[in-house]
Write a structure and sequence with these properties.
Chain lengths: ~140, ~950
């Protein structure tokens, strides 16, 4: 099977802003993965590729200001499709939080999960249309 | 600071126009009426803590507060409950343990307010709890939401199932979700969630998800008007197609027509699904990936349409970009790379393959590092197609340049891979030379692999032996530390078997050893070659001066080698003690007394040559299939019989008996050791398996107990006990049968016959799958006596049915007749294969044809003790690989089945679920029947 194993948003200092797991890991393992990903990704410079081999998988990542958005997928998976999936997700966050910044993700962590679930589910891409996702998010926002 | 404004200079310039910086630093916006002020204050407090201690203190205060609220007499309203549960979640996400609040979260599930329900579900999804009472309540709430007809609530419930994906949930909802998915009145967003929810359940519990009647309607979701539904459903369909390709094969034509509509649409036709002027990039990729589960369409019209799509995609790559933004080109190229994968997968359209290659060639010099990397990676697979191999070769200079100049080591690594893949006789000298020169400065992380690649290429494409010897010696000189035993051992093997290169080799190492400092491996090679052929250059060696520091390692060499080297160190000893001379070259005759001299200078017999040990190593590294056996044999032919020692003289060509094999040079490999140690462990493991069953028509009870072990009692009744001992090496085996007469009376007319099932029915021209030879036994077995019989077994090709042993004898006046299944199973011919995790998963992916995989889910029948499972897997004959599976609970193994005709690479994955006392066993083999057979055999072992 080919699917996303996890999505991580971390800042440069290694603080996790979102961790979404699509595979069973125990808590210690998750912590280890978070640290390893941080170590692997932060040492790379802008001239490097946005892909890095990681254990048996690969990380597709992109840096936005101080935040690293990382998606861990199978080595045979389509790098560019995930790289743009990250960007698509970031653009949705940007719209939803009106110029998103790191603190938005901290204070509204429970809403970020909703955004993720709209766009990615069970490790697969669920919805790619920004218009559709934002419409749905605004509708949910209006509910009590 | 808005994170989208100041980003990496290039790709994110998109956002530099967005206004930013107006937000208050501590409590940002969004919180309109829905925000939980208490939560925001708490988060602020935590962020303001100056130290870890202060943070813990603040958290403990909050935990105490929440606990008292939950325990208090006053019933909490929904809002407060939501707020506290959310705070608990935040505390958990900070990395602190949470041991309460689950019940309150479950209560939130039955709220009819979205925000409360959402927090409840989120808590449950993040802090999955195995408390069965809670699970019952959660499932109940989910059930209510699923039947609520409120799409928002249905989606929340489906997302929860998809996120948790436990077996309990699968049991409760696996039959309900397909119905929601295909129902006519289900909202689109619910369909999307239902499709992926079902996918998750199928991944965790495939046995519970029965598509049957839904299959056709699920496939037809590919035609759904809503592109989001197609995007979600196609992931489900792809997964199901991999498992049941026949049932889902109608998806091919649907996928082609959907793809065709997208590809031919204008950049604005698809509105919401157009991303930076590219129509539906993700859906296109998913469609192309689905098609990679199948061979090219048989229907001419469908195939024609698909080829047209692929051509259009290739054409679009040549068009001027519709936008300068990197998002545009990335999305476009994502589709292009996926299309190229499909073209390579089909490997049947020369025109498309060459066009793909040319396109990738352009990317090799693109300014985007990502594209250069991906082009190198993709070209590697193109190099192996006969249609595009030549086209790939034209890019050799660019690739060599990449190897020298790329800044990112992973790009250089891809360049090295591609050079290896494009190498053939026409360019081998150039490529090997470039790789050698790169090795001088190569990153440590890739040196060992580079050395192996150079060694293999040098051997495979050598046209003259002196070039080969020079290359390997250079390799040792440049990167001696990374030259593994297999590599230097192999050069010796080849030199010994070719007399035309011996003189040159001896002269060359002799010269090499005169360097002031020599790598230990150089000394080893020199030691051996000069030991053998030093007489050819009339001098023994300058080896002595290098020998002393290395001599300790010689004792670890395989037997023959160490004998030789012992002789050498002994010589040194003599030289030092007896011949106290400053003479640099020492004539052996001056130093050594006649008898030892004879021993030293006696030539070793040629190595029995069977297989290049380097290739064995690469196979080990890369796993079965990477360098296929046929490739190896091709290499032999092309390589001008470099490996052709096998036909040299009768002493090497003689087929050794299995026992002779056991003592052969292959004792380098750790096979013997691991098997025998596993064997001794297994005695205990299997002794609990109970007594053998009484006589029956064909008795196969004993049979199954021997799948993972080789010795023990096969059968026992009141009269007779049959024990077996067996050993296997490569495709040969020897089995000793011990027939014990338990009575005090003689057995008369004792005869045994071994037959292979089906041999009577099979065509006489067909060779048997298994060749079993035995000598007749003595017809009389005295009371209390034991007789022995030896069977020689040769595995010709893979097989499923075990041979039968029929035993007839007279006891008293009565004729006894007994037929047993002999425990000769395909796994006995395994050779373990060690490999790194990355290689394992690469192999795993390559064995992705549906028929190459066999999977079984079954209940544990012997307890789930780790040591016992490991012992059984070792007994199976494969290598048990550590640190391969990301989940340490799982076991993965790799091995190659050796038959006379071919080698079958096999990978195994065993996933225990201790809670459910279940296993999932998956096998992938390069030959389909083998997976199934191994799966059947093994499923009965745990």
């Amino acid at each position: 099977f080919v699917w996303i194993r996890f999505i991580l948003i971390q800042n440069r200092a290694g603080k996790t802003r979102l961790a979404k797991w699509y595979m069973q890991f125990d808590d210690d393992e998750k912590q280890k993965l978070i640290e390893e990903v941080h170590a692997v990704v932060t040492v790379r410079d802008a001239k490097h590729t946005n892909f890095v081999e990681f254990r048996n998988f690969k990380i597709i990542y992109r840096r936005y200001a101080g935040l690293y958005f990382c998606i861990c997928v199978d080595v045979t998976d389509n790098n560019l499709a995930y790289l743009e999936a990250i960007h698509n997700f970031v653009e949705v966050l940007n719209e939803y939080f009106h110029n998103v910044c790191e603190l938005d993700l901290v204070f509204n962590f429970y809403k970020v999960y909703t955004v993720v679930d709209e766009m990615f589910l069970a490790g697969e891409i669920r919805e790619t249309s920004q218009t559709k996702v934002l419409k749905q998010l605004l509708m949910l926002q209006s509910l009590e | 600071r808005p994170m989208l404004s100041a980003t990496r200079p290039q790709p994110q310039r998109v956002f530099s126009g967005t206004p930013g910086g107006q937000k208050p630093a501590k409590m940002p916006a969004v919180s309109k009426g829905d925000g939980m002020r208490g939560l925001a204050v708490f988060i602020s407090d935590i962020r303001n803590c100056k130290s870890k201690e202060a943070e813990i203190k603040r958290i403990n205060k909050e935990l105490a507060n929440i606990r008292s609220k939950f325990k208090g007499d006053k019933a909490l309203d929904g809002y407060s409950k939501k707020k506290y549960v959310c705070k608990l979640l935040f505390i958990f996400l900070l990395g602190h343990d949470i041991d309460f609040g689950h019940m309150e979260a479950v209560n939130l599930l039955s709220s009819n307010k979205y925000t409360e329900k959402q927090i409840g579900y989120l808590f449950i999804s993040v802090l999955v709890n195995s408390n069965s009472e809670l699970i019952r309540l959660i499932n109940n709430a989910i059930k209510n939401d699923l039947s609520s007809r409120n799409p928002t609530f249905m989606c929340l419930a489906l997302h929860c199932i998809a996120n948790v994906g436990s077996r309990e949930m699968a049991e409760a909802f696996a039959s309900e979700i397909p119905r929601i998915l295909v129902a006519g009145d289900t909202m689109d967003s619910v369909k999307q969630s239902a499709a992926l929810c079902l996918l998750r359940l199928y991944k965790t519990s495939p046995d519970l998800v029965l598509m049957g009647e839904w299959t056709s309607r699920v496939v037809h979701l590919l035609n759904d008007q809503h592109m989001g539904v197609v995007t979600a459903a196609i992931s489900l369909i792809t997964c199901l197609s991999q498992k049941n390709p026949d049932e889902f094969k109608t998806c091919v034509s649907l996928a082609v027509s959907r793809l065709s509509r997208i590809v031919s649409s204008a950049s604005t036709d698809l509105q919401d699904y157009t991303y930076y002027f590219v129509p539906a990039p993700w859906l296109s990729c998913k469609l192309l990936r689905l098609l990679q589960c199948y061979p090219p369409p048989e229907d001419g019209a469908v195939k024609g349409r698909l080829v047209e799509c692929l051509e259009t995609i290739l054409n679009k790559a040549q068009e001027p970009p519709k936008s300068k933004k990197v998002q545009h080109s990335n999305a476009k190229n994502a589709i292009l790379f996926e299309a190229i994968s499909l073209i390579i997968h089909y490997d049947s359209e020369p025109n498309l393959l060459v066009r793909a290659c040319n396109q990738l060639g352009q990317f090799l010099q693109h300014r985007e590092t990502n594209l250069r990397y991906l082009a190198l990676e993709s070209m590697c697979t193109l190099a192996s197609s006969e249609f595009s191999h030549e086209a790939v070769k034209t890019h050799i200079e660019t690739v060599i340049n990449a190897l020298k100049t790329e800044r990112d080591v992973s790009v250089r690594q891809r360049a090295a891979d591609l050079l290896y893949a494009m190498c053939d006789r026409s360019n081998a000298k150039q490529i090997v030379a470039e790789m050698l020169s790169y090795l001088e400065t190569a990153d440590y992380s890739i040196r060992e692999e580079m050395v192996l690649k150079v060694a293999i290429l040098a051997e495979k494409y050598a046209v003259d032996y002196s070039w080969y010897v020079d290359t390997i010696l250079n390799l040792i000189r440049i990167a001696g530390d990374y030259v593994s035993e297999e590599v230097w051992y192999r050069v010796i093997q080849i030199v010994i078997n070719r007399d035309d290169v011996q003189g040159y080799a001896a002269k060359t190492v002799f010269e090499a050893l005169q360097a002031p400092a020599c790598h230990e491996n150089m000394v080893k090679v020199g030691g051996y070659i000069l030991g053998e052929f030093g007489n050819l250059i009339a001098v023994v060696t300058v080896l002595f001066c290098h020998l002393a520091p290395c001599s300790s390692t010689f004792s670890q060499r395989p037997r023959r080698l160490s004998k030789r080297c012992c002789a050498m160190s002994w010589l040194v000893h003599l030289q030092q003690t007896v011949h106290n001379s400053d003479q640099y070259y020492v004539q052996t005759s001056e130093v050594v007394s006649p008898v030892p001299q004879a021993t030293v200078l006696e030539e070793m017999p040629p190595f029995p040559e069977r297989e290049s040990s380097i290739l064995a190593k690469l196979k080990k590294k890369k796993g079965p299939g990477a360098v296929s056996v046929t490739e190896l044999e091709d290499g032999k032919r092309e390589g001008g019989e470099l490996n052709g020692g096998g036909e040299r003289g009768p002493e090497t060509a003689s087929t050794p008996s299995p026992s002779a094999d056991l003592l052969g040079i292959r004792s380098v490999a750790p096979v013997g050791a691991s098997l025998s140690s596993a064997g001794s462990l297994l005695v205990d493991v299997f002794s609990e398996a109970g007594p053998a069953a009484p006589s029956a028509a064909v008795n196969d009870d004993g049979f199954l107990r021997f799948v993972c072990k080789n010795n023990g009692v096969l059968f026992e009744n009141q009269l007779l006990q049959i024990g077996i001992k067996s050993e296997y090496r490569q495709n040969l085996g020897r089995m000793y049968l011990f027939y014990g007469n338990k009575t005090s009376v003689q057995f008369a007319s004792f005869t045994t016959t071994v037959s292979c099932p089906g041999e009577l029915q099979s065509h006489i021209l067909c060779r048997p799958q298994l060749n079993v030879q035995s000598k007749p036994v003595e017809p009389l077995v005295e009371g209390g006596a034991q007789i022995q019989q030896v069977l020689n077994i040769e595995c010709i090709t893979d097989f499923s049915e075990a041979p039968l042993l029929n035993i007839k004898f007279r006891y008293g006046g009565a004729l006894q007749n007994l037929t047993l299944k002999l425990p000769v199973t395909i796994n006995k011919f395994f050779q373990p294969t060690e490999m790194a995790s990355q290689d394992f998963f690469q192999r795993w992916k390559q064995l992705s044809q549906p028929q190459q995989e066999a999977q079984k889910i079954f209940k544990a029948s012997h307890g789930m003790d780790t040591e016992v499972i490991k012992a059984k897997l070792l007994g199976l004959g494969m290598a048990l690989l550590d640190n391969v599976d990301p989940n340490p609970e799982n076991y993965v193994c790799a091995g190659v089945i050796q038959t006379k005709g071919q080698q079958v690479g096999c990978l195994l994955r065993l996933e225990p679920n201790a809670q459910a006392q279940m296993y999932r066993l998956t096998l992938r083999c390069s030959k389909d029947l083998v997976s199934r057979r191994l799966c059947e055999l093994l499923a009965q072992q745990f």
